[in-house]
Design goal:
By secondary structure, the chain is mostly beta strands. The protein has one domain. The protein has 1 helix and 17 strands. The longest helix has 7 residues. It is elongated.
């Protein structure tokens, strides 16, 4: 069953930024700025007929029992979501000159909201956990990435520069000189996820556990055990909520693995004639075949909790191409 809030309104955002730029020697520019974004009246939906926690069959505990006794789930569309994004953004750039150009950029940011991603994805757990306290789902956005560093460079390789050839100079330049390369390096921290109970005790749908400790593991993390999964014991990080209640564990309180990627390409242009130009390209994606791990199993009480069993993205890929321009 579908329902829409009679006061449903269109959402809007408020964007603001402040930036300082400084030109430096050798054709370089330093930029430092603050960028913010506030989302208001964000649309979302939830089951307005979710039963209240309690014993017995769920039917009598559903709020619409009096007017629709046979209805189970009711997707209710509302526009009361909120979000806030704040970031520090810095970049250092050299415009392409004398065969070299690069751009290094770093972002330190935090995004908070109380709704799931508009187009799905992310590991938000049950949202809302309790329809009676939807503000309790305010937490890190499913796409929140705290740190991200990127570096890209274009470089004309000095192959054949300053050398003399017995060949005709034009043939030597066409075969040996004129090579260039591109480099793109990306490093970022991981995405958040929500620990959930493998077996809910609320009797009202999925719920989160009691959070007794941070749940983070110190030192180097292992995909075989990414976070502290100790459960239901004296020194545990997680506990079972009281019968017929929801746990106090928050939404998106832990973070998964970060990602590192290095792409590289090399290419050369051959001027076949005044009109025709042939370009050879060799491109390597994820050059060092760095594994990009997915989020760990977040089901507390499950024997596989804390383990990572899949990867995202692609392994190393190499492709070569010829491009004719005219």
């Amino acid at each position: 069953m579908l329902a829409v809030d009679p006061n449903f309104k269109s959402g809007y955002t408020q964007q603001f930024n402040f930036q300082l730029q400084q030109e430096l020697p050798k054709d370089t520019v330093l930029k430092l700025g603050y960028v913010g974004n506030l989302g208001r009246r964000l649309d979302t939906s939830y089951d307005v007929n979710q039963p209240e926690p309690g014993p017995g069959a769920p039917g009598p505990r559903r709020p619409l029992i009096g007017i629709a006794p046979l209805v189970v789930g009711t997707s209710y569309n509302v526009s009361d979501g909120l979000s806030a994004y704040h970031s520090l953004q810095a970049s250092f750039e050299r415009r392409f000159n004398n065969g070299v150009g690069f751009l290094a950029a770093y972002t330190w940011s935090h995004s908070i909201d109380n709704v799931a991603n508009a187009f799905g994805g992310a590991d938000n757990g049950p949202i809302p956990q309790d329809r009676r306290c939807r503000r309790c789902d305010r937490g890190n956005s499913g796409f929140d990435i705290r740190h991200r560093l990127t570096y890209s460079m274009n470089y004309d390789l000095p192959i054949g520069r300053g050398r003399k050839y017995n060949l005709d100079s034009r043939l030597a330049d066409a075969v040996i000189g004129g090579w260039a390369m591109n480099v793109i390096f990306t490093s970022q921290t991981g995405l958040p996820f929500t620990p959930t109970l493998a077996t809910s005790v609320s009797n009202a749908g999925g719920s989160r556990p009691e959070r007794l400790k941070s749940g983070e593991l110190s030192g180097t993390k292992d995909p075989a055990l990414w976070y502290d999964t100790s459960f239901n014991r004296a020194d545990a990080a997680w506990g079972i909520p009281r019968q017929f209640t929801f746990g106090n564990g928050g939404r998106n309180i832990l973070y998964g693995p970060g990602r590192v990627n290095f792409d590289y390409s090399v290419f050369k242009d051959f001027q076949l004639s005044e009109r025709f130009k042939l370009q050879y390209r060799a491109e390597m994606f994820n050059l060092f075949n760095t594994p990009q791990f997915d989020l760990p199993n977040s089901s507390i009480g499950n024997p596989n909790a804390g383990t990572i069993t899949s990867v995202v993205g692609n392994p190393r890929q190499v492709q070569m191409a010829l491009r004719l321009a005219f």
